[in-house]
Amino acid sequence: MTQDTANFQNPFIVGERLYLRPLEPAQDNHLYSTWMNDEEIRRYFSVYPTSDTRGRERLDNLYKDTRHILFGVALKEDNRLVGLVGLKDINVLNQTAEFYVIIGDRNLHGKGFGTEATRLMLRYGFLELNLNRIQTQDMEENIGGWRADEKAGFKHEGTLRELILRFGKYHDVRVYSLLKSEYLETL
């Protein structure tokens, strides 16, 4: 069924409640910087301070990197940018990539938006990019992150012990993956 997307901003992949769109560094860098500086988000994603200028440079560089695909996560109801989703370390020879999602608007945590964004990106990765394996990593304490991964079909492969140092403590990281054959079984 075709949806009316005329009111959306550059929709690329449209879901039930949200859509994925290219980021506009000049427009979106402030939100990106705000999210990356948020203590709760940086606990899992980044320890580096990000200004608007650095945020724009980072987004510009990500778009130049052919091994990285990044989308903004926007709400269909009001076009508000609420997060980021991406595939990084794309390996065309082995048809693999690493997935990540950040829902930057804390008011939307726990409402299934991370799971929906994950499913949209998996569809893109497996059906359009023809990837065979997509993996993701979540810090053990990021319960919402790994639960969203499990709801989207990722399988827990194991735990990397004390892999990441954050706030003076080493943290274990859970590794998940999903194969194209497993994804196709869910369609």
From TrEMBL:
Annotated keywords: Transferase
Signal sequence, start to end: none
GO molecular function: acyltransferase activity, transferring groups other than amino-acyl groups
Keyword Disulfide bond in annotation: no
UniProt keyword Transferase, yes or no: yes
UniProt xrefs under PROSITE patterns: GNAT
One family name in Pfam for this protein: Acetyltransf_3
Entry-linked InterPro entries: Acyl_CoA_acyltransferase, GNAT_dom
Top-rank taxon, per record: Bacteria
Domain N-acetyltransferase: from-to ranges: 18-172
Protein's name according to its UniProt entry: N-acetyltransferase
